[in-house]
Write a structure and sequence with these properties.
By secondary structure, this protein is α+β, with helices and mostly antiparallel strands. It contains 2 helices and 3 strands, in the order E-E-H-H-E. It starts with a strand and ends with a strand.
């Protein structure tokens, strides 16, 4: 099982996609992406919830 995140699923004009075997491994990498690509240096809880909702499970 694999988990994926696509930044454009949240409405950004951004090609960032990331996948990991475990869901918990996605958020650290997503936070790095948001820091450098979107200038989000401190992730707010509402954005974390949106990101969590956008994470998809692949078989």
């Amino acid at each position: 099982m694999t988990f994926t995140f696509k930044c454009r699923d949240l409405g950004y004009d951004c090609s960032f996609e990331y996948e990991a075997k475990e869901r918990k491994d996605l958020m650290p990498r997503i936070k790095i992406h948001y820091k450098y690509a979107h200038n989000v240096f401190e992730m707010q809880p509402d954005l974390e919830k949106k990101i969590d909702t956008a994470i998809k499970e692949k078989a």
